Description:
Elements: E1 3-7, H1 12-24, E2 29-34, E3 51-55, H2 61-70, E4 75-78, H3 85-90, H4 93-115, E5 123-129, H5 154-173, E6 177-182, E7 184-186, H6 195-205, E8 209-212, E9 218-223, H7 224-237, E10 243-246, E11 251-253, H8 254-271, H9 275-278, E12 294-297, H10 312-318, H11 326-339, H12 341-345
Parallel strand pairs: 1-2, 1-4, 2-3, 4-5, 5-6, 6-10, 7-9, 8-12
Antiparallel strand pairs: 9-11
Helix pairs in contact: 1-7, 2-4, 4-5, 6-8, 8-11
Amino acid sequence: MSNMLVTGGAGFIGTNFVHYWRREHPEDRIIVLDALTYAGVAENVEGREGVELVRGDIGDTPLVEELLRKHDIATLVHFAAESHVDRSISGPDAFLSTNIIGTHSLLKAARSVFLEGDGRPHRFHHVSTDEVFGSLEPDDPAFAETTPYSPNSPYAASKAASDHIVRAYHHTYGLEVTTSNCSNNYGPYQFPEKLIPLFLLNCLSGKPLPIYGDGMNVRDWLHVEDHCRGIEAVLGKGSIGESYCIGGGEELPNVDVIDRICRSVDAAFEENPALAERYPDAPASRGVPSETLKTYVTDRAGHDRRYAIDETKAREELGYKPLRDFDTGLEQTLSWYLSNEDWWRKLA
């Protein structure tokens, strides 16, 4: 049995990781540290066996040190971050504060307890994004661990900075760190400002589906549970000081993703006529295709054209590979949102 500190564990990916880890490692105890800002939901993890939720800021270094010592923690998995690109464009200050200063606060606490304390074996795992690598042209090779950093949004720049600080704490102080850079996640518990849950819920409520530019921006889609499996592999088999790219192997234009969402919603209404009563504003409730809600809007400032992940290193060194194809994962995601209306109604 061991104890783990998970920052941002009441957010989307953190919540799924906590649930996954408890299922796969029921002997371990998890302390979740989360500031419970707009995207953190206490009920995601509160009251779960083997999980303790602490409301607090990762920028509170003394608090983090206290948690590491009090709970005899040897593994820290760092999810906590501001992550919505649109929000970073309109208000970058919070991104620099949380993603850079907050990460440095955690590193200071980990150094104090892990290195200057009893010198216990430890791991600081930093969860990052493929957006730090910038944008790819259609024929460019996919992002790999050796791809030069070239962030294009305040969000991506703040995550790039945090990656570098984590690396520096390993090379300068000897902190035992690993980093993973993931592609676009989707799945249960995702806050409805991101593309897939936003468009799913807009289809149900009959609201427009706003598509940036020509809709041909390409992303690599990764089901959140496959991401959790990837982090598990890094924690178990990853080399100290190394980074690993974790992708879903599903490179799709945004407009293709949106079309699949529309078809999935339409199919769900055909299979379950009761949905028309629950969601009378949905076009599908009247037999009208959800795609009629599509509308094209002015492109986002600095919108990266294409992301793609080369997961060769994770596959060869860790044995990682995604288990879900996109259509299966999307169907499961839609089913979850239809079954958990009480959860998203409070947030949407």
